[in-house]
Amino acid sequence: MTETIRIELGARSYDVHVGPGALATGLKRLQGGKRRFALVIDENVLACQSDRISQMCLALDIVGDPVIIPAGEGAKSFRQLEELSSALLSMELERGDAIIAVGGGVTGDLAGFAAAIYKRGIDVIQVPTTLLSMVDSSVGGKTAINTSQGKNLIGVFHQPARVIADTGFLETLPRREILAGYAEILKAALIGDADLFKQLETAGANSISAGRIPELIAGAVRFKASIVAADEREAGSRALLNLGHTFGHALESEADGKLLHGEAVAAGLALAFDYSVRQNLCPAEDATKVKRHLDDIGLEYGLPRLRGAPFTAKAMLDRMRHDKKTSGGHIRLILARGIGDAFIHDQTDMSDLLTFLKDKIQ
Ligand SMILES: NC(=O)c1ccc[n+]([C@@H]2O[C@H](COP(=O)([O-])OP(=O)(O)OC[C@H]3O[C@@H](n4cnc5c(N)ncnc54)[C@H](O)[C@@H]3O)[C@@H](O)[C@H]2O)c1
Q1: Which one from 76, 151, 162, 238 is the annotated catalytic residue?
Q2: Helix segments in 210-309, DSSP class H
Protein backbone atom coordinates (compact mmCIF):
# COMPACT_ATOMS: atom_id res chain seq x y z
CA MET A 1 0.00 0.00 0.00
CA THR A 2 1.24 3.47 -0.87
CA GLU A 3 0.41 6.78 0.71
CA THR A 4 0.98 9.97 -1.28
CA ILE A 5 1.76 13.16 0.59
CA ARG A 6 1.70 16.51 -1.20
CA ILE A 7 4.39 19.07 -0.37
CA GLU A 8 2.62 22.37 -0.98
CA LEU A 9 5.07 24.90 -2.36
CA GLY A 10 3.12 26.67 -5.09
CA ALA A 11 4.80 26.12 -8.46
CA ARG A 12 7.39 23.88 -6.77
CA SER A 13 4.83 21.53 -5.15
CA TYR A 14 5.46 17.81 -5.44
CA ASP A 15 4.31 14.37 -4.30
CA VAL A 16 6.06 12.03 -1.89
CA HIS A 17 5.01 8.39 -2.32
CA VAL A 18 5.58 6.31 0.83
CA GLY A 19 5.14 2.60 1.43
CA PRO A 20 5.97 -0.87 0.15
CA GLY A 21 4.47 -0.16 -3.31
CA ALA A 22 5.82 3.35 -3.74
CA LEU A 23 8.28 2.47 -6.49
CA ALA A 24 5.60 1.09 -8.82
CA THR A 25 3.33 4.08 -8.11
CA GLY A 26 6.11 6.62 -8.63
CA LEU A 27 7.44 5.01 -11.81
CA LYS A 28 3.96 5.01 -13.34
CA ARG A 29 3.74 8.76 -12.76
CA LEU A 30 7.11 9.28 -14.48
CA GLN A 31 6.22 7.32 -17.61
CA GLY A 32 5.08 8.93 -20.84
CA GLY A 33 6.61 11.88 -22.64
CA LYS A 34 10.06 12.20 -24.15
CA ARG A 35 11.97 12.80 -20.97
CA ARG A 36 15.18 10.88 -20.43
CA PHE A 37 16.61 10.04 -17.03
CA ALA A 38 20.14 9.77 -15.64
CA LEU A 39 20.36 7.19 -12.88
CA VAL A 40 22.68 8.26 -10.05
CA ILE A 41 23.02 5.48 -7.53
CA ASP A 42 24.83 4.62 -4.32
CA GLU A 43 27.27 1.73 -4.85
CA ASN A 44 25.81 -0.43 -2.07
CA VAL A 45 22.26 0.03 -3.32
CA LEU A 46 23.38 -1.00 -6.79
CA ALA A 47 24.97 -4.13 -5.32
CA CYS A 48 22.06 -5.28 -3.18
CA GLN A 49 18.89 -3.97 -4.82
CA SER A 50 19.24 -5.33 -8.35
CA ASP A 51 15.52 -6.19 -8.66
CA ARG A 52 14.35 -2.68 -7.89
CA ILE A 53 17.05 -1.15 -10.10
CA SER A 54 15.95 -3.37 -13.01
CA GLN A 55 12.35 -2.31 -12.34
CA MET A 56 13.42 1.33 -12.80
CA CYS A 57 15.50 0.62 -15.90
CA LEU A 58 12.64 -1.29 -17.54
CA ALA A 59 10.05 1.38 -16.76
CA LEU A 60 11.98 4.48 -17.84
CA ASP A 61 14.19 5.77 -20.65
CA ILE A 62 17.52 5.70 -18.78
CA VAL A 63 20.48 7.31 -20.54
CA GLY A 64 23.74 5.37 -20.56
CA ASP A 65 25.12 3.53 -17.56
CA PRO A 66 24.19 4.45 -14.01
CA VAL A 67 26.55 6.92 -12.34
CA ILE A 68 27.80 5.14 -9.24
CA ILE A 69 28.39 7.16 -6.08
CA PRO A 70 30.88 5.68 -3.59
CA ALA A 71 29.26 4.90 -0.24
CA GLY A 72 29.93 7.26 2.64
CA GLU A 73 30.00 10.91 3.59
CA GLY A 74 33.26 11.44 1.65
CA ALA A 75 31.22 11.49 -1.56
CA LYS A 76 29.69 14.85 -0.64
CA SER A 77 32.76 16.62 -1.99
CA PHE A 78 33.74 19.06 -4.75
CA ARG A 79 35.66 16.26 -6.43
CA GLN A 80 32.64 13.97 -6.60
CA LEU A 81 30.42 16.85 -7.70
CA GLU A 82 32.81 17.52 -10.57
CA GLU A 83 32.88 13.84 -11.57
CA LEU A 84 29.11 13.60 -11.47
CA SER A 85 28.63 16.85 -13.45
CA SER A 86 31.08 15.66 -16.03
CA ALA A 87 29.28 12.29 -16.35
CA LEU A 88 25.96 14.11 -16.84
CA LEU A 89 27.51 16.33 -19.53
CA SER A 90 28.86 13.26 -21.34
CA MET A 91 25.33 11.87 -21.42
CA GLU A 92 24.23 15.10 -23.10
CA LEU A 93 21.37 15.40 -20.68
CA GLU A 94 19.11 18.28 -21.65
CA ARG A 95 17.16 20.82 -19.63
CA GLY A 96 13.91 18.83 -19.90
CA ASP A 97 15.56 15.59 -18.75
CA ALA A 98 15.91 14.56 -15.13
CA ILE A 99 18.22 12.90 -12.62
CA ILE A 100 17.00 10.02 -10.47
CA ALA A 101 18.96 9.91 -7.21
CA VAL A 102 18.83 6.43 -5.68
CA GLY A 103 20.49 6.12 -2.29
CA GLY A 104 20.67 7.65 1.14
CA GLY A 105 21.14 11.27 2.12
CA VAL A 106 24.67 11.33 0.70
CA THR A 107 23.58 10.43 -2.83
CA GLY A 108 20.46 12.58 -2.53
CA ASP A 109 22.34 15.67 -1.34
CA LEU A 110 25.07 15.31 -3.97
CA ALA A 111 22.78 14.48 -6.90
CA GLY A 112 20.30 17.16 -5.81
CA PHE A 113 23.08 19.74 -5.83
CA ALA A 114 24.30 18.56 -9.24
CA ALA A 115 20.73 18.80 -10.57
CA ALA A 116 20.42 22.34 -9.23
CA ILE A 117 23.49 23.58 -11.06
CA TYR A 118 23.53 21.39 -14.19
CA LYS A 119 22.66 23.71 -17.10
CA ARG A 120 21.25 26.09 -14.46
CA GLY A 121 18.92 23.48 -13.05
CA ILE A 122 17.16 20.28 -14.08
CA ASP A 123 14.64 18.09 -12.24
CA VAL A 124 15.73 15.58 -9.66
CA ILE A 125 13.58 12.67 -8.53
CA GLN A 126 14.65 11.48 -5.12
CA VAL A 127 14.45 7.74 -4.46
CA PRO A 128 15.63 7.50 -0.85
CA THR A 129 16.84 4.07 0.25
CA THR A 130 17.73 4.67 3.91
CA LEU A 131 15.30 5.39 6.71
CA LEU A 132 17.00 8.72 7.35
CA SER A 133 16.66 9.85 3.76
CA MET A 134 13.01 8.72 3.60
CA VAL A 135 11.97 10.69 6.67
CA ASP A 136 14.20 13.69 6.24
CA SER A 137 16.81 14.43 3.60
CA SER A 138 14.83 13.57 0.45
CA VAL A 139 12.06 16.03 1.32
CA GLY A 140 12.46 19.79 1.57
CA GLY A 141 14.97 20.64 -1.14
CA LYS A 142 18.17 21.16 0.84
CA THR A 143 21.20 19.98 -1.12
CA ALA A 144 24.84 20.31 -0.13
CA ILE A 145 28.38 19.05 -0.09
CA ASN A 146 30.94 19.20 2.73
CA THR A 147 34.28 21.01 2.98
CA SER A 148 37.14 20.69 5.45
CA GLN A 149 35.50 23.53 7.42
CA GLY A 150 32.37 21.54 8.08
CA LYS A 151 29.34 19.72 6.81
CA ASN A 152 26.79 20.99 4.29
CA LEU A 153 28.42 24.42 4.03
CA ILE A 154 28.20 24.60 0.23
CA GLY A 155 24.79 24.00 -1.26
CA VAL A 156 21.52 25.37 -2.57
CA PHE A 157 17.80 24.84 -2.20
CA HIS A 158 16.47 22.73 -5.05
CA GLN A 159 13.15 21.00 -4.48
CA PRO A 160 12.79 17.54 -6.01
CA ALA A 161 10.15 17.00 -8.67
CA ARG A 162 8.96 13.83 -6.90
CA VAL A 163 10.05 11.61 -4.00
CA ILE A 164 9.62 7.84 -4.09
CA ALA A 165 10.15 6.36 -0.63
CA ASP A 166 9.68 2.64 -1.17
CA THR A 167 10.09 0.88 2.17
CA GLY A 168 11.16 -2.30 0.34
CA PHE A 169 14.61 -0.72 0.04
CA LEU A 170 14.97 -0.94 3.83
CA GLU A 171 15.08 -4.78 3.67
CA THR A 172 18.82 -4.61 2.97
CA LEU A 173 19.67 -1.64 5.17
CA PRO A 174 21.90 -2.56 8.15
CA ARG A 175 20.31 -2.30 11.60
CA ARG A 176 22.74 0.44 12.64
CA GLU A 177 21.49 2.62 9.76
CA ILE A 178 17.85 1.93 10.69
CA LEU A 179 18.55 3.12 14.24
CA ALA A 180 20.30 6.23 12.93
CA GLY A 181 17.28 7.06 10.74
CA TYR A 182 14.97 6.58 13.69
CA ALA A 183 16.72 9.51 15.39
CA GLU A 184 15.18 11.87 12.80
CA ILE A 185 11.69 10.43 13.44
CA LEU A 186 12.19 10.95 17.16
CA LYS A 187 13.38 14.49 16.38
CA ALA A 188 10.08 15.28 14.64
CA ALA A 189 8.14 14.12 17.71
CA LEU A 190 10.34 16.13 20.07
CA ILE A 191 9.96 19.31 18.01
CA GLY A 192 6.22 19.40 17.73
CA ASP A 193 4.29 16.22 18.46
CA ALA A 194 4.12 15.21 22.12
CA ASP A 195 1.42 12.61 21.33
CA LEU A 196 3.70 10.88 18.83
CA PHE A 197 6.45 10.83 21.46
CA LYS A 198 4.04 9.19 23.91
CA GLN A 199 3.26 6.48 21.36
CA LEU A 200 6.96 5.91 20.68
CA GLU A 201 7.71 5.86 24.40
CA THR A 202 4.97 3.29 25.02
CA ALA A 203 6.13 1.09 22.13
CA GLY A 204 9.76 1.33 23.32
CA ALA A 205 12.06 -0.87 21.25
CA ASN A 206 9.04 -2.03 19.18
CA SER A 207 8.78 1.47 17.68
CA ILE A 208 11.13 0.31 14.95
CA SER A 209 9.39 -2.94 14.04
CA ALA A 210 9.09 -3.40 10.27
CA GLY A 211 5.27 -3.27 10.42
CA ARG A 212 5.22 0.20 12.00
CA ILE A 213 7.88 1.77 9.79
CA PRO A 214 5.75 2.89 6.78
CA GLU A 215 3.34 4.76 9.08
CA LEU A 216 6.23 6.33 11.02
CA ILE A 217 7.81 7.51 7.77
CA ALA A 218 4.52 8.94 6.49
CA GLY A 219 4.02 10.75 9.82
CA ALA A 220 7.51 12.26 9.74
CA VAL A 221 7.09 13.33 6.10
CA ARG A 222 3.71 14.96 6.88
CA PHE A 223 5.35 16.81 9.76
CA LYS A 224 8.26 17.96 7.61
CA ALA A 225 5.84 18.93 4.81
CA SER A 226 3.99 21.28 7.15
CA ILE A 227 7.21 22.96 8.30
CA VAL A 228 8.70 23.26 4.81
CA ALA A 229 5.43 24.61 3.36
CA ALA A 230 5.43 27.37 5.99
CA ASP A 231 9.09 28.33 5.57
CA GLU A 232 10.73 26.85 2.49
CA ARG A 233 14.07 28.67 2.81
CA GLU A 234 14.56 28.54 6.55
CA ALA A 235 13.89 32.23 7.18
CA GLY A 236 12.22 31.30 10.46
CA SER A 237 10.36 28.25 11.75
CA ARG A 238 12.08 25.69 9.48
CA ALA A 239 15.15 26.10 11.69
CA LEU A 240 13.26 24.02 14.26
CA LEU A 241 14.14 20.97 12.15
CA ASN A 242 17.71 21.53 13.33
CA LEU A 243 16.86 20.34 16.84
CA GLY A 244 19.89 18.31 17.95
CA HIS A 245 21.80 19.21 14.78
CA THR A 246 24.19 21.94 15.91
CA PHE A 247 25.47 19.66 18.67
CA GLY A 248 25.16 16.70 16.30
CA HIS A 249 27.13 18.24 13.44
CA ALA A 250 29.96 19.11 15.85
CA LEU A 251 30.07 15.52 17.12
CA GLU A 252 29.84 14.09 13.62
CA SER A 253 32.71 16.24 12.36
CA GLU A 254 34.86 15.57 15.42
CA ALA A 255 34.22 11.82 15.21
CA ASP A 256 35.81 11.90 11.76
CA GLY A 257 33.59 9.33 10.09
CA LYS A 258 33.08 7.01 13.06
CA LEU A 259 29.64 8.36 13.91
CA LEU A 260 26.66 8.20 11.55
CA HIS A 261 24.68 11.41 11.01
CA GLY A 262 21.61 10.02 12.78
CA GLU A 263 23.71 8.70 15.68
CA ALA A 264 25.18 12.18 16.11
CA VAL A 265 21.68 13.68 15.95
CA ALA A 266 20.45 11.25 18.64
CA ALA A 267 23.22 12.42 20.99
CA GLY A 268 22.51 16.01 19.90
CA LEU A 269 18.84 15.62 20.91
CA ALA A 270 19.87 14.51 24.40
CA LEU A 271 22.31 17.44 24.62
CA ALA A 272 19.68 19.94 23.45
CA PHE A 273 17.26 18.72 26.14
CA ASP A 274 19.94 18.66 28.84
CA TYR A 275 21.07 22.17 27.90
CA SER A 276 17.44 23.36 27.95
CA VAL A 277 17.09 21.96 31.48
CA ARG A 278 20.31 23.66 32.53
CA GLN A 279 18.93 26.98 31.28
CA ASN A 280 15.77 26.37 33.36
CA LEU A 281 13.74 26.31 30.19
CA CYS A 282 12.55 22.71 30.30
CA PRO A 283 11.45 20.30 33.07
CA ALA A 284 14.24 17.84 33.96
CA GLU A 285 11.70 15.04 33.71
CA ASP A 286 11.33 15.62 29.95
CA ALA A 287 15.08 15.30 29.33
CA THR A 288 15.03 12.11 31.38
CA LYS A 289 12.19 10.71 29.25
CA VAL A 290 14.08 11.49 26.04
CA LYS A 291 17.22 9.74 27.29
CA ARG A 292 15.24 6.77 28.61
CA HIS A 293 13.68 6.33 25.17
CA LEU A 294 17.10 6.53 23.49
CA ASP A 295 18.23 3.79 25.92
CA ASP A 296 15.18 1.66 25.03
CA ILE A 297 15.90 2.01 21.32
CA GLY A 298 19.62 1.38 21.71
CA LEU A 299 20.85 4.80 20.59
CA GLU A 300 23.89 5.97 22.57
CA TYR A 301 23.97 9.59 23.79
CA GLY A 302 26.66 9.62 26.51
CA LEU A 303 29.57 11.58 25.01
CA PRO A 304 32.35 9.51 26.62
CA ARG A 305 30.80 6.31 25.21
CA LEU A 306 30.01 7.56 21.68
CA ARG A 307 31.92 6.21 18.71
CA GLY A 308 34.70 8.69 17.94
CA ALA A 309 35.21 9.64 21.62
CA PRO A 310 37.04 11.24 23.33
CA PHE A 311 35.71 14.65 22.33
CA THR A 312 37.00 17.95 23.65
CA ALA A 313 34.64 20.75 24.63
CA LYS A 314 36.71 23.44 22.94
CA ALA A 315 36.88 21.58 19.62
CA MET A 316 33.15 20.99 19.75
CA LEU A 317 32.44 24.65 20.47
CA ASP A 318 34.70 25.67 17.56
CA ARG A 319 32.74 23.36 15.27
CA MET A 320 29.47 24.79 16.54
CA ARG A 321 30.75 28.33 15.89
CA HIS A 322 31.50 27.42 12.29
CA ASP A 323 28.14 25.79 11.81
CA LYS A 324 26.07 27.71 9.28
CA LYS A 325 23.47 28.35 11.95
CA THR A 326 25.76 30.89 13.64
CA SER A 327 24.77 34.54 13.26
CA GLY A 328 26.18 37.77 14.68
CA GLY A 329 28.72 35.90 16.82
CA HIS A 330 26.00 33.96 18.64
CA ILE A 331 25.30 30.32 18.22
CA ARG A 332 21.73 29.58 17.27
CA LEU A 333 20.50 26.54 19.11
CA ILE A 334 17.14 24.87 18.92
CA LEU A 335 16.10 24.25 22.50
CA ALA A 336 12.92 22.90 24.08
CA ARG A 337 10.40 24.07 26.65
CA GLY A 338 9.34 20.44 26.85
CA ILE A 339 8.70 17.40 24.68
CA GLY A 340 6.94 18.57 21.50
CA ASP A 341 7.71 22.23 22.16
CA ALA A 342 11.00 23.24 20.52
CA PHE A 343 11.96 26.85 19.88
CA ILE A 344 14.77 28.91 18.35
CA HIS A 345 17.28 30.29 20.85
CA ASP A 346 19.61 32.86 19.27
CA GLN A 347 21.51 34.22 22.25
CA THR A 348 23.48 31.27 23.52
CA ASP A 349 26.30 32.35 25.81
CA MET A 350 29.56 30.80 24.60
CA SER A 351 31.26 30.40 27.98
CA ASP A 352 28.18 28.83 29.51
CA LEU A 353 27.94 26.44 26.59
CA LEU A 354 31.62 25.56 26.95
CA THR A 355 31.15 24.72 30.64
CA PHE A 356 28.13 22.58 29.77
CA LEU A 357 30.10 20.66 27.13
CA LYS A 358 32.98 20.12 29.56
CA ASP A 359 30.55 18.64 32.09
CA LYS A 360 29.07 16.34 29.47
CA ILE A 361 32.40 15.12 28.20
CA GLN A 362 33.69 14.03 31.63
N1 LIG B 1 19.24 17.50 2.70
C2 LIG B 1 18.75 17.40 3.90
O3 LIG B 1 17.74 18.04 4.26
C4 LIG B 1 19.38 16.46 4.87
C5 LIG B 1 18.73 16.13 6.07
C6 LIG B 1 19.32 15.18 6.91
C7 LIG B 1 20.53 14.60 6.55
N8 LIG B 1 21.13 14.95 5.40
C9 LIG B 1 22.40 14.33 4.99
O10 LIG B 1 22.14 12.96 4.76
C11 LIG B 1 23.38 12.25 4.90
C12 LIG B 1 23.15 10.98 5.66
O13 LIG B 1 22.25 10.20 4.94
P14 LIG B 1 22.09 8.64 5.25
O15 LIG B 1 22.00 8.41 6.70
O16 LIG B 1 20.98 8.18 4.38
O17 LIG B 1 23.49 8.04 4.84
P18 LIG B 1 24.15 7.45 3.49
O19 LIG B 1 23.60 8.05 2.29
O20 LIG B 1 25.61 7.55 3.74
O21 LIG B 1 23.74 5.91 3.54
C22 LIG B 1 24.14 5.13 4.63
C23 LIG B 1 24.77 3.81 4.21
O24 LIG B 1 23.76 2.92 3.78
C25 LIG B 1 24.07 2.38 2.50
N26 LIG B 1 22.77 2.13 1.89
C27 LIG B 1 21.89 3.05 1.45
N28 LIG B 1 20.73 2.46 1.14
C29 LIG B 1 20.89 1.14 1.36
C30 LIG B 1 20.03 0.01 1.24
N31 LIG B 1 18.76 0.14 0.87
N32 LIG B 1 20.55 -1.20 1.54
C33 LIG B 1 21.82 -1.33 1.98
N34 LIG B 1 22.67 -0.31 2.14
C35 LIG B 1 22.19 0.92 1.83
C36 LIG B 1 24.96 3.41 1.87
O37 LIG B 1 25.79 2.83 0.90
C38 LIG B 1 25.76 3.91 3.06
O39 LIG B 1 26.81 3.03 3.33
C40 LIG B 1 24.33 13.20 5.57
O41 LIG B 1 25.26 13.65 4.63
C42 LIG B 1 23.45 14.35 6.03
O43 LIG B 1 24.13 15.58 6.06
C44 LIG B 1 20.59 15.86 4.55
Answers
A1: 238
A2: 213-230, 245-254, 261-278, 284-297
> Maximum distance among all alpha carbons in the chain?
61
Task: Return the pLDDT at 46.
Answer: 98
CB hemisphere CA count around 98 (13 angstroms): 21
The pTM of this model reads: 0.95
pLDDT tens-digit readout, 8-20: 999 999 999 999 9
- 266 Cβ below 6 A of ligand 1: no
Fill in the amino acid letter for 158: H
Helix axes 284-297, 261-278, angle to 10 degrees: 160
Q: DSSP class of residue 57?
A: H
What torsion, rounded to 10 degrees, do the Cα atoms 138, 139, 143, 148 define?
Answer: -70
Distance 347 CA to ligand 1 centre (A): 32
Residue whose CA is closest, atom 3 of ligand 1?
Answer: 137
pLDDT tens, position by position, 326-338: 666 678 899 999 9
Q: What is the DSSP letter of 172?
A: G
CA of 133 to the centre of ligand 1 (A): 6
User: Could you tell me if the CB of 263 is within 6 A of ligand 1?
Assistant: no
Decide: 71 in ligand 1 pocket, CB within 6 A: yes
Residue spans of the chain under pLDDT 70: 324-329
